[in-house]
Amino acid sequence: MSTAPPSLHRDVPLAPFTTLELGGRARLFLEVAREGELVEALRWAAAQGMPAALLGGGSNVVVDDEGFPGLVVRVATRGIEVARSAQEILLTAAAGEPWDEVVNLAVSEGWAGIECLSGIPGTVGATPIQNVGAYGQEVGQVLHSLCALDRSTWEVVTLPGGELQLGYRTSLLRRQPGRWAVLAVTLALRPGGAATLRYQELEELLQTGRRDPGLARVREAVLELRRGKSMLLTPDDPNRRSVGSFFLNPLVEPTVADEVARRAVAAGCLDAPQRLPRFPAPAGAVKLPAAWLVEHAGFPRGYRRGAVGLSTRHALALVHHGGGCTAELLALARNIVTAVEERFGVTLVPEPTALDGTPLALRGTPGGGACLRP
């Protein structure tokens, strides 16, 4: 593509396109509604020697105050196709489809497999990148395949779900930022299947015993739980400007968990080491709840520092109260990481990424965070 894409805009504020409502401006900005437009826009940027980044729902991204020096492509592609058999439903959704609309469709049709992922903001294309999960389900459990543009070869390829190296909030796509542009995702769902009940909090809310409550009831319950934690994008919620959970739950060796428990007792956070909340994880690892570590490192729910702070309902959600900047948010995140390291010897890893898909830089010196106003 030798000429610039039509509808190309210059110097566009990015904050309104993110759930944090933070960040600077894009040098160039383009919204695409068709898959071909997306591919051609990325090829054009590459031909100009210009960096290009993809933006979906903006719910798992932190945009720098300095903005982005190249082209930001907002993916607004739509379309759903369904292939049916007696055993499974293959649902293919374009990358720009809102994720919760796809979940709602599946539940209303009686297709099991993603009902516990209700209420998660963002678009379909982002879900396999971090292997989105909640309340006992992960996208990886039903991911049949995806269609993606390999930006290293400019080939459009189909990647089977089994080849994506899916793990806890990670995948091959996340470990190779900038290489892949997801175009569509195919999910293998179970027609008439039972709802998934693997999460204690969800089971306790439903109180159904061993009876299948049905997909619709599970979806309602998940939405209720998320609403109670300010994890739904509700306009009147004071905690709404966030990316949800900011840190991953640490996966550690059992000996490390034992050391965390020892430190917690020594710091007066626990009266006995066996009271440390810990959960079994794959490969013999132990999952520690990051929210507990954050709160017991001195950052309770509702903690506030200027225009940023922690949600009043969930210690893992860093929130922007308005009028702030990304530097303030990242400074708070660094302070939390440092405090958890000093008290418990565990390093928290951020769940959101920078706009270009690379990890957030949280290893700098903790501080107040100087705002650079766009």
Tell me what you see in this structure.
- With about 375 residues, the protein is α+β, with helices and mostly antiparallel strands.
- It has eight helices and 21 strands.
- It has helices spanning about 35-45, 100-110, 170-175, 200-205, 215-230, 255-265, 290-295, 325-345; strands at about 10-15, 25-30, 50-55, 60, 70-75, 80-85, 90-95, 110, 135, 135-140, 145-150, 155-160, 180-190, 240-245, 250, 280, 285, 305, 310, 315-320, 355.
- Strands 6, 7, 8, 11, 12 and 13 form a six-stranded antiparallel beta sheet that branches. The protein has a four-stranded mixed beta sheet with strand order 1-2-5-3, with helices on one face. A four-stranded antiparallel beta sheet has the order 14-20-19-18, covered by helices on one side.
- A hairpin with a 4-residue loop joins strand 11 and strand 12.
- The longest helix has 19 residues, at about 325-345.
- The protein is globular and about 65 Å long.
- The mean pLDDT is about 95.
Secondary structure topology:
Layout: E1 9-13, E2 25-32, H1 35-47, E3 52-55, E4 61-62, E5 68-75, E6 80-84, E7 89-94, H2 99-109, E8 111-112, E9 133-134, E10 137-138, E11 143-150, E12 155-160, H3 172-175, E13 180-191, H4 200-206, H5 215-228, E14 242-245, E15 251-252, H6 254-266, E16 279-280, E17 286-287, H7 290-296, E18 304-305, E19 308-310, E20 317-320, H8 326-344, E21 353-354
Parallel strand pairs: 2-5, 3-5, 4-21
Antiparallel strand pairs: 1-2, 6-7, 7-13, 8-13, 9-10, 11-12, 11-13, 14-20, 15-17, 16-17, 18-19, 19-20
